[in-house]
Amino acid sequence: MKKFSVTPWSVSGNVDYDKLIKEFGIEAINEKLLERIKKQTRDLHFMLRRKVFFAHRDLPRILDEYEKGNKFFLYTGRAPSGKVHLGHLLPWIFTKWLQDKFGAELWFQFPDEEKFLFKKNLSFKEIENFLNDNMLDVIALGFNPKKTFFIVDTIHANLMYKEACKVAKKITFSMVKSSFGFNETTNIGAIFYTSMQAVPAFLPSILKKRNIPCLIPHAVDQDPHFRLTRDILPKLGYYKPASIQCSFLPPLSGTQGKMSSSKLEQETVFTIDSPEEVEMKIKKYAFSGGRATIKEHREKGGIPEKDISFQYLRMFFEPDDEKLKAIYENYKSGKLLTNELKEILIEKINSFLKEHQRKRELAKKQIGKFLFKSF
Amino acid sequence: MKKFSVTPWSVSGNVDYDKLIKEFGIEAINEKLLERIKKQTRDLHFMLRRKVFFAHRDLPRILDEYEKGNKFFLYTGRAPSGKVHLGHLLPWIFTKWLQDKFGAELWFQFPDEEKFLFKKNLSFKEIENFLNDNMLDVIALGFNPKKTFFIVDTIHANLMYKEACKVAKKITFSMVKSSFGFNETTNIGAIFYTSMQAVPAFLPSILKKRNIPCLIPHAVDQDPHFRLTRDILPKLGYYKPASIQCSFLPPLSGTQGKMSSSKLEQETVFTIDSPEEVEMKIKKYAFSGGRATIKEHREKGGIPEKDISFQYLRMFFEPDDEKLKAIYENYKSGKLLTNELKEILIEKINSFLKEHQRKRELAKKQIGKFLFKSF
């Protein structure tokens, strides 16, 4: 059995999501739960149908409340430390769907101190550039500016630091040590940080002076933060935040680990890549589940499960189940060649990025609308 | 030899200040240094003459800079968690003298999260009341409102949190563990806190965009915080802050430990005490260096070194060396009885507090003038 590791700071190996569910103590999203969601949303996002969002904590409680007319808000975030890539967009696209379907407010945290504290050679100056750049990608996805509030930890510290202290008072070093693998050489800012990440899960309740349920869509590697948050918030009189968790968009190199900007540029498709870069990266680096020769491929067929191009279509770029099924079968039968499959993906990515980049330009004038001021 | 212990959170035993100088690695204030100060100030505050302020770090460097025309600013503070007592006022009175003599700006920090993080049952609501109340005592001492800036950690977190992260990145758990005696059960807010206490030592340099030397007058128990601060600030490109440190005003019960609001109310004279309360506390609780009977006292004389009333006169209420000397000699010779000595102190404290309480009332309308806004 292959080994894998999932922490908020790195993901490696061939992630066994069933095993992760047991290890983390999260719950798989089953058909019954999908039916409950569908009752409210009428359709199911393909990321739910295909179990890209595969696990949750307390989602039924959020639906109970919603059915009683007690709306939840969404909370997710992005620690700016580099360019945004496709792996980042995946949960945000789903979050926008949730916002639309449930009419939910979204509190989007940009913890600009996180990577500063965790990366040795990163300065606040560099982070500030990434912060503004990353905001464009979020805005470009089309979140409702009237219902979406950007919170930047250092800019909104007046709202957040005091609340973070309330959380911090209930978390000991020994708790973060085991949750995050800290030790005696960990810096005291990194040790404190999880308290800041907890705050947006109850900040709207403070600002609106009533207790509002919170749902956090996020990639499963962030679960240790929110596990702590869930332990603490009821002690402060707030709802335990619920979560809905997705698997990782793999890097181009293969189905191990996750797409990450800390890896080689070639393993990652960034949102500002040109059509030529995308084409080159997919053609040159996207791991293929095809066979060594065309002859062998036609005979034995490809392995879509291992093929990055197919996986990107499944997880992100081909929402139509019928079309995806046809691609799957044609590839598995050997009818569809690796190059042809890659062409399909390249076209899909480039058409997505063309539109995304256009909206990204427009977003430059919209940051002010999204930054939270006050009610 | 008696044992004693001095940490930022408690002082106990008969403090041996010579030993403390060696343990902490601070420097005694010697006659040569006093002469240098006197050159600038023309006279010497009695707290300097009498070695109430007895130690320092890097004070000569501050004077070097001052002589070159490079003015320093002062930084001190108060963690609100109870009523202000005479022990708190002592270093602040000296700080005002420094402000007047050196024309220095004073940055006065109210770290309202500190005691919240370190005291189990203290809420932010209680602290907020103390905060406003404590500010009155500071203002009442007559600091120059044009040169004095109050910084409240949770109110000014927008200015402070990012800077605190820069400090925190350079401090490991193992460093705070040894400096403050933390362990695995210490909460992560308390672990982070020292970074916030470091910020006012370079905040004016940031706000004014030039590097300004900093002098911190404080009671010696806070030295562990500033020792860390001194290690870190040069790494961030700022001056190592200098400090000037005082001994503790003892509690009424005797010359062990320090006056503290965590002790019994009877051991402490608060700034809002009535003349009757002061009289009662001094008469009933102020430890006497007198003898068991008047006869014995007349014969053998009192012991001013052990007498709390005499110590309060020496450290705080009798600035006139001649008068103090006369009291000392009369008490030592047995001419002055304990009751008479206590009457002298009661009159001094009550006349001080009458004026202080009057200014405290006026201060209620001045808080806004002292709270830092921006330049």
Order of helices and strands of chain A: EEHEHHEHEHEHHEHHHHEHEHHHHHH
**CATH topology title of the largest domain in chain A:** Rossmann fold
Uncertain stretches of 5 or more adjacent residues of chain A: none
Largest sheet of chain A: 7 strands, mixed
Give the number of domains of chain A: 2
Structural class of chain A: alpha/beta
Q: Name the assembly state.
A: homodimer
Report the radius of gyration of chain A as a whole number of Å: 21 Å
**Largest interface, by Cβ-Cβ below 8 angstroms: which chains and how many residues each?**
A-B, 39 and 40 residues
Descriptive account of the structure:
The structure is a homodimer of 375-residue chains. In chain A, helix 8 (157-168) packs across helix 10 (188-198), helix 10 (188-198) packs across helix 12 (223-232) and helix 15 crosses helix 17 (338-363). Chain A is built from 18 helices and nine strands. Helix content of chain A is 50%, strand content 11%. In chain A, the strands form two sheets. Chain A has a seven-stranded mixed beta sheet with strand order 3-4-9-8-5-6-7, with helices on both faces. A two-stranded antiparallel sheet of chain A has the order 1-2. In chain A, 47% of the residues are buried. The first copy, chain A, has 375 residues and is an alpha/beta fold. The longest helix of chain A has 26 residues, at 338-363. Chain A is globular, with a radius of gyration of 21 Å. Chain A has two domains: 4-253, Rossmann fold; 265-361, Orthogonal Bundle (Tyrosyl-Transfer RNA Synthetase), CATH 1.10.240.10. Chain A starts with a strand and ends in a 5-residue tail after the last helix. The A-B interface holds A 113, 116-117, 124, 153-158, 160-162, 164-174, 176-177, 182-192, 194-195 and B 113, 116-117, 124, 153-158, 160-162, 164-177, 182-192, 194-195.
